[in-house]
Amino acid sequence: xxxxxxxxxxxxxxxxxxxAPRRAPAKKKPVRLLSGGNPQIAKGDGDAPVQAYLAAxxxxxxxxxxxxxxxxxxxxxxxxxxVKWNSPFYGVExxxxxxxxxxxxxxxxxxxxxxxxxxxxxxxxSKSAGVRYLDLREGDQLDEAQLATWLKxxAAxxxxxx
Length: 162
Hints:
The chain has 162 residues and is an alpha+beta fold. The protein is built from three helices and nine strands. It has a single domain, classed as Aspartate Aminotransferase, domain 1 (Alpha-Beta Complex), CATH 3.90.1150.200. The strands form two sheets. A seven-stranded antiparallel β-sheet has the order 3-4-5-6-7-9-8, with helices on one face. Strands 1-2 form a two-stranded antiparallel sheet. β1 and β2 form a beta hairpin. The protein is globular.
């Protein structure tokens, strides 16, 4: 509110003006998709930015992403979530992140940061020491039991800390 001065019987007196009209709520901008359909989501800790990322994934990747998120929460109930570098990360407090997810044009890539310690080994080899990948493509049959086993093992190991 802006204040203005007026005079009453020769004396200066402060008065206030009426409140400015309310602005309409800002419209949400559509999420920008980066190369491969990876959503550009602001960094943030907690479930909300991860859910925003999953909702912004195009097509079948969104459904699969939500299914993976639910499986991760069931397998690791105390999971800590964050979005960093336009990708969701899952971890355990005090141990760092054990899993990252990234969208590419034709698949979702799960990165197990201590993947070489998992048994059996996830199939994707990495140039980064200790990391193993699992690529999930449209129509793939998801072995939820095996994935849950890897998630539990990975959550029990020291993870990656940015």
